Amino acid sequence: MKHLYKTVLTVLAAACAYQANAQTITKDTLKLDSVLIKETRNKYLPEVVGQYLFSGKKTNIIYPDAGKANLAGNNARTLFAQTPGINVWEMDGAGLQINIGTRGTDMHRSIETNMRQNGYNTNSDVVGYPENHYNTPFQAIGEVQYVRGASALQFGSQFGGMVNFKIKQPDTTKAFGIESEQTTGSNRFFNSYNAIGGKVGKVSYYAYFDARSGNGWRPNAAFNYHAYYANIKYQFNDKGSLSFQFSRSDYVQQIAGGLTDAMFNANARQSTRFRNFFMPAINIPAIIFNYNFTPNTRLEITTHALFGERSSVQYIAGSNVADTVNKTLNTYNPRQVDRDHYKSFTTEARLLTNYNIGSVRSTLTTGVRYADGSTHRLQKGVGTTGTNFDLSLVKDYGIDLDLNAINYAAFAENIFHLTDKFSFTPGVRFEGIKTTINGVVNNRSTNVDYKRDRTFPLFGAGLQYQVTGTTQIYGNFSQAYRPYIYAAVTPADQLTLVDPNMKDSKGYNSDLGYRGKIGQAFTFDVNGFFVRYNNRAGTLTVQDAGGANHLYLTTVGNAEAKGIEAYTELSLIRGFNSQATSDLRIFNTLAYTHGRYVSGSINNNGTNASLVGHKIEGTPDWTNRTGLTYLNGHITSTVLFSYVGKQFSDANNTVFNATGASGVVPAYKLVDLAFNYSFLKSYHVNFNVNNLTNQKYFTRRINMYPGPGILPGDGISFNIGFGVKI
After folding, report:
1. Between the N and C ends of the chain, which has fewer C-beta atoms within 10 Å?
2. Is position 221 within any domain?
């Protein structure tokens, strides 16, 4: 840590020296209100971005501006505050994982969302285990692109849409630039973000290092996080470029454990575990090739690998079982060690061309994808009786599996501009998957040998009509699918049966909306949506010929999610006086989601219970976020009020469980504050308060890591930061 502080002080000293030699800033210069200029940008993606088509789709653009979101704390609910329908699971208050879901999809590590950075996937194993262990520091993000379910044709398997974190680009007017921000806060929080960038000749570059640490709001919740990134781009001529990128994130987190309802009600800040630890480390090297053959035809080829691991050592027991010294052993009980090792390789090529058919302007994008992902899964190893982070074993792993999935795909989408105002965008995608699982489970007593090949043709289309110069109607229909994950076809023991004809989840998404701006005063995007989600995986109870009960891994039911998503924003000053140098903006982000099972049944304490009419787990009927933002040439400040309605933690809609692992997740209301002040052109200070009113709440129950039980949300916390960019 001493070396880190020395590095930070050196960077800041260099920045101050540079600034001392800078030209004096005049009063007229300060009148250039960059913050207000940013606010005129659209909230949705244009028809074409690079080699991607977004015409007729439900999209959002998020600009992670300080003073509007807690960037140093990687707080997801503030980052996505202006995106309706996002449900955020707060696994911890450190921002170490992005857990988002929408329209009835699972939030857990964004497992049903196609997560990307600079266009390539960051999910650990996109097909078989698509949890997102990689974490991008929000301070490094220049723009977030979010496309809802209609993104399946261009991006592949998902029902939750596609999120693409675009990392900042360097200032190409400089040979060398520095960006540094140091943040400290409650519970010994400290974050250090440092970046360099610039351009020399044909080479531009941007690199950052981020370190975040703290004790956490609860006891036994300490964390230590690091993130690294480098991008070197060579523009070899006016038509083509080649970029070399490398990303890494890693952290060690102490897990405070889950609580029962009684524990939570008595003291939400208490901890049930102190010997549990979690450590993911993900590396992503990438090469991106771009070439413009003509002004109307351009190619992008992205090749990337992902290798890393997620490891944990935990005392596995219900939240109502204390982790104390075993009087028989005169030591603590042994802990369980679980480790996954990931290795994948992916190449995607996309070609876009503009052409005319008579008087009809058209844009065609086509692409192919090949991915080979492998996971080596080691679970239920018997670890030590110690108290520190120790992955060593005293008895071998009870589960040892090699899991592999090969995915290949081809797609095409075309925008036909039938008139100057009306466009039609049909598309098709063909996916193939080969899944192989080999190894042993059940204390190495049961062999697993599973192979399955599947193919998926997907179709969709979008419509867009430009009502006025600044408003448009959009609509789309797109088929989607989610391949069953490895866990759905891996028996837990010799009595667990796997459906040999296990079906992948299939269905479709549709949207119809109206968006745009009315003058400079009112911005809006209101849409209705419908999602059909068939063949959700689960567990049934079956009997064999001898009358013995077995758990049966299969598809258990079909679900539907329908509702309304609405974003509105009113400019109270500049909207009525374009010459004003400040503004006050009020926004509201509202979503109603009616998510219900329409058929099927699932195991419930040894019997099969009907799912019909049950709410989709992790899906509140209502979410609403209202914010008030003040802007001028120096200050950006936002007060955010969030409301998330009641939801259930399981498909059985369990109301109460004594262990806390299932049951109702009550509605909660939170207030957050963000403030940023810029001065002397290159400097800024910011201040963030999360949960300003110190509400007692939680966002999810869970029956596995990092529980089981209730995971309390953090009480009131703050951070304050100082930054420089030269």
Report:
1. N
2. yes
C-alpha Rg value of the chain to the nearest Å: 26
| Over residues 27-50, mean pLDDT | 64
Cα 400 from Cα 606, distance rounded (Å): 28
- For residue 375, what are the domain limits? 34-725
**Contact criterion met (CB below 8 Å) for 537 and 505:** yes
Question: What's the total number of domains in the chain?
Answer: 1
125 located within any domain: yes
What single letter denotes the amino acid at residue 176?
Answer: F
Domain annotation covers residue 18: no
Please give the torsion angle defined by the CA atoms of residues 29, 31, 34 and 35, in that order, rounded to the nearest 10 degrees: 150
Q: Let me know if residue 29 belongs to a domain.
A: no
Q: Let me know: does 166 contact 143? Beta carbons within 8 Å.
A: yes
What region, left, alpha or beta, does residue 296 occupy, with left being phi > 0 and alpha being psi -120 to 50 degrees? alpha
Record the tokens describing residue 30, joined without a space: 């300060």
Cα distances from 721 to residues 13, 194, 383, in angstroms, run 16, 13, 40
Neighbours of 281 (CB within 10 A): 18
* DSSP label of 681: T
The HSE-up count of residue 498 (CA atoms within 13 Å, CB side) is: 21
Q: CATH code at 669?
A: 2.40.170.20
Residue 571 has, within 13 A of its CA and on its CB side, a CA count of: 23
What pLDDT digit, counting tens, does each position of 74-111 carry?
999 999 999 999 999 998 889 999 999 999 999 999 99
Sheet holding 59-62, edge to edge: 59-62, 141-147, 162-167, 114-117, 120-121
